[in-house]
Amino acid sequence: MKLKGAEIICESLLREGVDTIFGYPGGAILPFYDALWSYPQLRHILVRHEQSAAHAADGYSRVTGKVGVCVATSGPGATNLVTGIMGAKADSVPMVAITGQVARASLGSEAFQECDICSIAASTTKKTFMVMNPNDLAETIREAFYVTQEGRPGPVLIDIPRDVQMELTDVTFPDVVSASVPEVSEEASERLKEAARLINEAERPLIISGHGVMTSGGNKEMLALAEKSGIPVITTLLGLGSFPSGHPLSMGMLGMHGMYWSNLSVDQADLIVGVGMRFDDRVTGKVDTFAPHARIIHMDIDPSQIGRNVPVEVAVVGDAKALLQELTPMVNNTPHPDWMQFISNLKQDHPSLAIPPSDQLQAQQVMTALDTLLREDEETTIVTGVGQHQMWAAQYLTFNESDSFVSSGGLGAMGFELPAALGVQVAKPGTPVWAVAGDGGFQMTLQELVTLTEEKLPVKIALINNGYLGMVKQWQEMYYDGHLKAVPVDGPDFIKLCEAYGVGAIRVTEQEDVLPALRQAQAHDGPFLIEFVVDSNTNVYPMVPPGGSLADTIEDPAIAPNPTN
Questions:
Q1: Which residues contact 10 (CB under 8 A, 6 or more apart)?
Q2: Angle between helices 260-268 and 337-349 (to 10 degrees)
Q3: pTM of the model
Q4: What is the pLDDT of residues 526-541, one digit of tens each?
Q5: Structural domains in the chain?
Q6: 247 HSE (CA, 13 A, CB side)
Q7: Cβ–Cβ < 8 Å for 434, 452
């Protein structure tokens, strides 16, 4: 069979089960776009900035489990993808980025829009490929899709010169080989026995459930372990949804803005079982003081993460789901009444979710009302940007389903929310999708409002507008002597902006109007934005101070805790 290089790309994508591509055309990738004309099975979503293409592919992948695909031209098109690619690497999202490149004869000549994107993206991907011969395209794409899903998922980039896309060649397509879930090794099995022994002997045990539980499809297995052992479960930020928030054993999130009771329980625990998580700095606080009384069991598919940040007593490398399946039958249900009472007292005496009284609308009140919608329809997906609104969403919303919370965790990319929500909505056309945004981050990618309109994607947007880069302002107030520099962030009239983009919109300033507005948006046939004008003086608590330990967690000074029993 003779095909042009661009046609080989299209055929290969179809063979890998790809049905949607997020991209932006340009000169070096035009042969591919010309080929797309003959492949209507490949839906192309035209974003308005290449960074959005990567974020949209990220969101699409997280809720489908499929590989997200984004496409850009050479030079600035390719470099604009890098932020989204790095975000996918940090959060273990399988993604294939395809970039056009100048013709082979022009390589190294500093031709128009030439750049060495493979070198630029090397540290942000699992692997990069430069395809110099059309005969190699089919095999390269097959390998790229395998690499992106094998082991710890992550992004891969394929760079293809323009003339390679145009050249006609004979092609034989390799068989599609899915990345298999590795079986539990003999070594891992032995370590699981040791893990079970420590679990059964522990008096103050805790489980920390991370994003790796969801990427492995191990939610049911995590639930089974918790219920079999009776051990409370804390989640990381990206682990929200890996364990039902409404479960009696759920303790919510830990870390920099985690629940006071979660952080203090970790500080007092004698055993930590970390599953599918990295023990990064936002989780641990000061590493030297993390869980000072605890033995640590760490289960993760990436051996490089185990023992990287905290000392580990039992290291178990493997797929989270498979490891949990083998571990659970070995653990006992050992009551820990004193430990459970300690946690209960912390929750009672330190109400981390109490909202201070105020005459102005509070962002937390918006989240509480939004949570009402989530409880009514648990298929709802929440996508957030990065900042104060992200933390309030993580604290106040209920996530009982896998991948019901999508956010930029490891990289923390502002502007993630709208394009990622776009990708989620494409993947889940019949379910509610809410983008929770801050007024600062929203202005980085708001051009994608027109993409929502064009593609008839009914994404709802809760815009938390406090007039500031809120998290930066909070740090400047607390740790930089109140020197508020470059944090007031004026914005446009968001209602008029939405009108220009063909998106429904209203503004809310009073608490009694919040829930009716949310219901109005939910019922609207199409994209809809609610601008919530909230108190600019409200900060996110609890908070672990920079350089502090979990035991140093600061509570909201407006809420005086009762003494712990």
A1: 32, 35, 36, 38, 39, 42
A2: 150
A3: 0.96
A4: 999 999 999 999 999 9
A5: 2-170 (3.40.50.970), 186-349 (3.40.50.1220), 363-533 (3.40.50.970)
A6: 26
A7: no
